[in-house]
Amino acid sequence: xxxxxxxxxxxxxxxxxxxxxxxxxxxxxxxxxxxxxxxxxxxxxxxxxxxxxxxxxxxxxxxxxxxxxxxxxxxxxxxxxxxxxxxxxxxxxxxxxxxxxxxxxxxxxxxxxxxxxxxxxxxxxxxxxxxxxxxxxxxxxxxxxxxxxxxxxxxxxxxxxxxxxxxxxxxxxxxxxxxxxxxxxxxxxxxxxxxxxxxxxxxxxxxxxxxxxxxxxxxxxxxxxxxxxxxxxxxxxxxxxxxxxxxxxxxxxxxxxxxxxxxxxxxxxxxxxxxxxxxxxxxxxxxxxxxxxxxxxxxxxxxxxxxxxxxxxxxxxxxxxxxxxxxxxxxxxxxxxxxxxxxxxxxxxxxxxxxxxxxxxxxxxxxxxxxxxxxxxxxxxxxxxxxxxxxxxxxxxxxxxxxxxxxxxxxx
Length: 412
Prior knowledge:
Strand content: 5-15%
Shape: globular
């Protein structure tokens, strides 16, 4: 049995622990549901329908992560859209330019360096005090993503704090002294990130190119502001989401002795499978949004679904990832090594699908497995569950204050 974030205790079918970040079960909800609002809006919960939407680049465009505001505002006239917002040939060109940084052979080449980084960070976990794992995992994610991007000051504490401030949710009481201070910190984080982290990296690469994303963007004629936009995009995709994955996986493992024993006893492939299953059950990005630019017909289980042009399609990733028709029994259970259809990845839609699928998925999973395996070499105690908040940007969870300490060894 396992305790969920809402305080309930539940158990999964076949001994599989269930998701902790529980929302009301909607197993009886329709696959496609119109949503109220001033503009046409549709929610999709079926895995097959959701994947069909994501694989129609000619009929849809990105509508999540602020894309509509970017295209509809004044920024688009002066700032090159980041790869997350691009469509068509421009998007394919940008993806090709960055693809080699995430190719399997390149990613595998990072393994030794990732292990050294994990060893150094995990050494901070002591027996005589509590360590905030969410902060430690953020340091791991920042240092790994920064190496790919080309940010040279990733190991400096200041960069972690600037990124934390940038992605920190607003304080619930914006008028309180703490709320005003936090908003001021958030509003200046972008400028500080540019001046102290991005600009020095650009300056260094204007003098001498390196094998990283910033050098490639300079070769392609990107301005400093355009490079900043890309750095923020990759920071959100490669740092914040990986931090959440590491934190939620640690939470699951420390809260279930059988699952922890299975992880420790497994080989690398089995450990990776467990990480991917955690991500399927607890996707960091809870919803993906697309806007149709032409009429679209989806072949659903209940018959064709006609979607007019101009409709915002809200893909419920949490529901699609728990679609029993795809994942089989105990869809809410954390059961590594599921038998899935050949075309279905282990994490299902947790990394998206189609032309906007996250290119760094293999690196994120490998990074999480390396960090977790290093962390769990010793027995740990947790001070309690993490603090759970919900992010308006990702429509997913934001975990913090998962405090752990190493238990003393009793040799002999």
